[in-house]
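Changelog note: in this version the structure field was regenerated for every chain. One regenerated record is shown below for reference.
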Amino acid sequence: MQYPEIIRAGVIQFDVQRGDIAKNLVSAVDAIHQLSRQGTQLAVLPELWACGFDHANIKEHAEKTTEIIETMSMAAKKEDILIAGSLPELSEGRIYNTLVVIDRDGSISGSYRKVHLFSGGRENETFSAGQTAKIWHTSLGLMGGIICYDLRFPELCRSLAIQGARIIVVCAQWPEARINHWDILLQARAIENQLFMVAANRTGSDVGLNFPGHSQIVSPFGKILAKTDKMKDQVSADLHFKEMDDFRGLFDCLKERMPEAY
């Protein structure tokens, strides 16, 4: 399959209202429409963007995920934009924090269940951990995805890069107290894997935590191509894959690994 050499990617941030699916849907669909008007082909939403970490009611929210996906599939097709964002998934009695990827024709290109659950936020008491990191074949190329705390585990991103991912999307609810880690780790994952990071964080506050956004798009060089600077915002940037390939041609860190030595 022939993939585009340049795509426009966007990130969306807003104050996720815990438990208020209707209000969060309006925020998400409105931002997606704004990005589409800018010619954006990929839109990334924050972690659990539809309901937040509403632990007490997460099962009820998960039961509505199929309906939410149907709504977003219609939006993806209408706006001709690929949408990625995490939602609660109910499967065989277990609940997962699952990143769902809806392609531009409204079809589901793939999903990823969060592997690393943040025990500090008691996520492991509500969610089950995913077991597999895999890439998705989309109309825009090969992508992988991670969710928030996953960013602290370089092996996960490296696995996606080895599998062929050229973009890694990140959905997060990363708090202000550690936002400098978010900024640095995004650049590190981009540089060490020589790919694009497209990362969306939420804003606002919830359960005593403040969330400053800092949603951003980072190049394989570690350059910040776009970054949000308002509490509710969406920004986009062009991803040039030829530049990435040329960079890898100078020194291909992925091919020159020596895993047998470590």
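Spot check on this record: The mean pLDDT is 96. The chain has one domain: 7-253.
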